[in-house]
User: Which sequence fits this backbone?
């Protein structure tokens, strides 16, 4: 794996051994994780003075992996998957919505707008803004899309419409909450995994729109050191990252397609205990590799291709 230093590889070996009992794989997030597994991941968190939340579903077996899966974490830009899905859903009712041109000004630009800042004079279509929000995590694009929907509360309403009663979006970019003790702009790993599954693999969107959203996620330019760094080369990953200004927040949610095997849906949320901590993207990659190692014990297809 390209994210391993020798130190990380040693740490992974220790944790995988401690997690060798299949108890980490549970049928539901509410199932209690055995003390040995909790202790192993707690040691990992302690190593980096951090907090890690994981929920993953293996579509082949229906089994799941959960750690702090029901605890709230600041979402940061992972919310953009829900926001863009909401816009796509609206386009099912409003013919031509995705081709609608949105004009904006310099005053509309906010921090981290790598795509929208290039098109102030021409404006962008809803489809182009959606691609920018997903593939480049463009904040102005996300705000313009939320304005189209009716604000952050409308994004939350869409989450409720697909059965997610945990998601809470309260603010606009770039003012999303980073405080892990606040419920604002937060969700849980299990809720985000289940929402991602419904949006990318389920029937929350039409097949055509689902395909388009997945393509934008597959083209994401922000996640090279997160989920993508935790899977073997040439595996397909469609993801949406999120990072916070404080507490070293590094998140990633998405779907992994192992060659010839069923997909794996995953949400990994991380934060650190110090407010001014540096982001550690390798924590996400590390957790991804661990997830695959655990699933390979019960998934015959995965077992054959993971070495």
Assistant:
């Amino acid at each position: 794996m390209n994210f391993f230093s020798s130190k990380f590889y040693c740490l992974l070996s220790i944790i995988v051994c401690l997690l060798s009992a299949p108890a980490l794989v549970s049928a539901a997030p509410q199932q209690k994780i055995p003390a040995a597994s909790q202790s192993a991941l707690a040691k990992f968190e302690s190593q980096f003075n951090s907090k890690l939340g994981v929920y993953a579903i293996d579509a082949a077996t229906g089994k799941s992996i959960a750690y702090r899966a029901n605890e709230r974490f600041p979402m940061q830009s992972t919310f953009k998957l829900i926001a863009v899905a909401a816009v796509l859903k609206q386009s099912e009712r409003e013919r031509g919505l995705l081709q609608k041109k949105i004009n904006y000004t310099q005053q509309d630009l906010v921090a981290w707008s790598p795509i929208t800042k290039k098109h102030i004079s021409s404006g962008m279509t809803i489809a182009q803004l959606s691609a920018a929000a997903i593939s480049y995590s463009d904040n102005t694009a996300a705000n313009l899309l939320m304005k189209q929907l009716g604000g952050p509360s409308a994004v939350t309403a869409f989450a409720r419409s697909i059965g997610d009663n945990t998601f809470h979006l309260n603010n606009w970019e770039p003012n999303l909450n980073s405080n892990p003790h606040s419920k604002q702009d937060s969700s849980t790993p299990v809720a985000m995994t289940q929402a991602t599954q419904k949006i990318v693999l389920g029937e929350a969107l039409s097949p055509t729109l689902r395909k388009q959203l997945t393509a934008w996620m597959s083209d994401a330019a922000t996640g090279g050191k997160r989920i993508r760094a935790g899977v073997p080369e040439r595996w397909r990953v469609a993801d949406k990252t999120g990072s916070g200004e404080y507490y070293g927040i590094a998140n990633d949610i998405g779907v992994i397609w192992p060659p010839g095997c069923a997909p794996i849906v995953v949400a990994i949320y991380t934060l650190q205990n110090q407010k001014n901590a540096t982001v550690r993207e390798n924590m996400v990659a590390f957790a991804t590799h661990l997830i695959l190692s655990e699933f390979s014990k019960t998934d015959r297809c995965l077992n054959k291709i993971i070495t």
Notes: The radius of gyration is 19 Å. The chain is about 40% helix and 15% strand.
